[in-house]
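Note to self: the last two entries modelled the partners one at a time, which told us nothing about the interface. This time every component goes in together.
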Amino acid sequence: MYHSKISGLGYYVPENVVTNDDLSKVIDTNDAWIQERTGIQERRHVIKGDGDTTTTMGVKAAKAAIARAGIANDDIDFIIFATLSPDYYFPGPGVLVQRDLGLTRTVGALDVRNQCSGFLYAISVADQFIKTGMYKNILVIGSELHSTGLDMTTRGRNVSVIFGDGAGAAVLTREEDLTKGILSTHLHSEGQFAEELSLAAPGMGRRWVTDIIADNDPDDISYYPYMNGQFVFKNAVQRLAEVVGEGLAANNLAVSDIDMLIPHQANLRIAQFIQHKFQLPDDKIHNNIMKYGNTTAASVPIALTEAWELGKIKAGDLVVLAAFGSGFTWGSAVIRW
Ligand code: COA
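The predicted structure of the combined assembly is written out below.
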């Protein structure tokens, strides 16, 4: 048995900054409402025609993570890509990364469909492959291109002001010291609430594609994300607290052992609720939703990379990652850095 450690981290966000005031020029919203409810001040959106996609952003984040891990591209044994906004309906972006990194090996590429908790699911899967000795280095990416698919009218304002574009990546590497690295991961789902935060189209289960094309309906909102905001909020605070507690208990650790909590950047109010519940001081939690909005599968690796770059995570620290989102799905990871 081995452990896996995070040996390299990277992130990429598009240069184009979209402020709350920018949004208020196209939809009926305002800076005060957005900041008060979500904490978000600005987010990044790709510029049409610039060429950034979920995959290209993921590759940029991956290159930084690989360089920091000190390995060559061809040392990667497996790729796991988490996103809800793939370039193509199929194939998923994992294979595009295998191509765009120029890997000469035909390594496996797995796509994870777990939305905001996608990165937690992805590193949990990577951890299992490394623990058993099957793989030594796994590239895990969370990347999201929301801006091209949001309803930028007042009709979609409760969703469209929240989400932003970006990518984060981590290289997970075999660790022989079993006191270090990922100590445990914990994953959950509650499918009865699948439709409370969802994007219906172009799902094949409900409508025939031929009918969608024949209808050609400009008011078809099934292509835009739907969110029951208050219901999601209530479940998020409950499940995030639970799954952090579960991770600590599994390792006989207490909240006071946490050196850094990286919560999914869903809403600053959700993160603050968790911080308050656990009575964590400000220097033991890292939030950056103010700058990037909610980047779903990319939010945890972007925040983790940023915290690490800022020197907020040091060798020996206990780092806890936690996420909740559409599905509902949620999870945590407890890591001795
Ligand atoms: N700007 C201005 N007003 C807005 C608005 C916006 N962007 N979005 C909604 N409103 C309005 C609504 O129309 C409503 O007006 P009304 O009272 O006249 O009907 C009012 O604000 C309250 O709407 P509501 O949806 O009840 O707001 P809320 O307090 O629930 O806040 C969220 C909305 C989305 C910020 C909040 O529910 C939330 O953060 N939920 C969790 C979201 C999340 O974390 N999602 C990702 C999970 S991974």
